[in-house]
Amino acid sequence: MLSCRDILIEIGPRRLVSGGSFVVDAGIKAGLVGPNGAGKTTLLRTLAGEREPDGGEIHRRGRIGYLSQDPTTAALDVSTTARERILTARAIGSLEREMEEVRAQMEHVSGAQRDRLIRRFSRLEDEFSAGGGYPAKAEAERFAAGLGIGTDELDQPVVTMSGGQRRRVELARILFADTDVLLLDEPTNHLDLDARDWLISFLTGYKGGLLMVSHDLPLLDEAITTIHALDHGTIETYRGDYSHFRVERRRRQERRRKERRRQEADIARLEEGIRRFKGSSEKLAKRARSWETRVQRIRSDLVHVDRPGRAVTVRFPEPEASGRTPLRATSLTKAYGDNIVFVDIDVDLDRGERIAIIGLNGAGKTTLLKILAAQEQPDLGEVVRGHNATIGYYAQEHESIVAGRSVLEHLREVSSLSDRELRGILGHFLLADKIDQDAGTLSGGEKTKLALARLVVGGHNVLMLDEPTNNLDPQATEALLGSLHAYSGTLVLVSHDRDFVAALSPHRAILMPDGETRHFDEDMLGLVELS
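Structure (tokenized):
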């Protein structure tokens, strides 16, 4: 169980949450919603114990599983496989790793030393079996399969995996951990359709408490029974799914507007009376003074009315034209150790066209995009840029966003525009109040906006975008789509967002891992959902 009372969260001078109180107990399935930058991710991190609240109380009881937007695997041993990583969620994980180490040592010794290792292995195996190790291994594999992690991937070192693969491994580990409370931040990022359906089924049957941040609106309808809405520092609770929340929120807002209009009318009426009678007879002046007290009381109790939120606006400047073929790649091959990602891939881009790279999870879409953008080198083959081609790359893992540097510094790195102009661009992305903030403390949606702002000021004529809609709210996604429709340069896109890809209407598709290039048609949208 998890509960918070009068919680206060501040980031620098900004107050993200004030007076927040709610409970996540067994059987409660709650969604945490709000615009990008409202503080949802920071609140979840605070509830998980990764940072301390600036006020109030948080009480935790039982095991809590937390999936962050950007789960880090930097501390992992380079040889740790996906299976081992998932098993570490329970004590048997470390036991199995120790058993494998002892087994490996046994192959290189003999005599008394080997006998000691055999006895040690036997003790470890007994402990592993007593802890339900072998059935748990099978259970972990079922979790992995449900989330689209294949048998071959389970034996792959985590550090060699793509961002989407690593995130699915972390989600499997957290769900496998047998927790009492789950805190999930955008759990459907990088999930294909089958994995998403499996996750919904799991969450629907989950007996513990659940608090989830997600822009996947159907998920909030299917798996959630309570909504906590965070905006302007306050948390308001609604019973029901997301669709009910949207209707009820409009009703509450309309009631507040009516009450606010009534209060303002009362103030205007009383102030008119005060002006008329304050300088009159003592009796009328006394009444005017009592009305002043009533006005002060009404003003102190004025109903808060939400102001219309500002919208994200994205506009890519007209870039200088590239040559007719801005980029050509031939015979690209890439492998990580024994894991061959793809072999003999050819790519030709035509100026001004839109290309979608499509394929199942782990098919090498992100790897190919990184090689085309010169973020990685192929093992074989080459990439040649055409005349006047300048490439802007958007990374799904926000690798370009570096902790310790301010938001404004991130734009200065890629643009010669004046600070005044850069501040204006950040304002279009609703980041004007975060100019001096450490970019590493931004939410996932805010990092996405900053990364897009870097592309805007770069003036590139070739854009390579890897899952650009992850963590964006619907309004910002629409703004991005509109800007890409107006963009005259060349675009290469990796995305699992079916609606986004369909609305963008690519000219061609590269089907991975074979690298076959075809004209895009709507039949391919089913594969986009599975990517």
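DSSP finds 18 helices and 18 strands in the chain. The first helix runs from residue 40 to 48.
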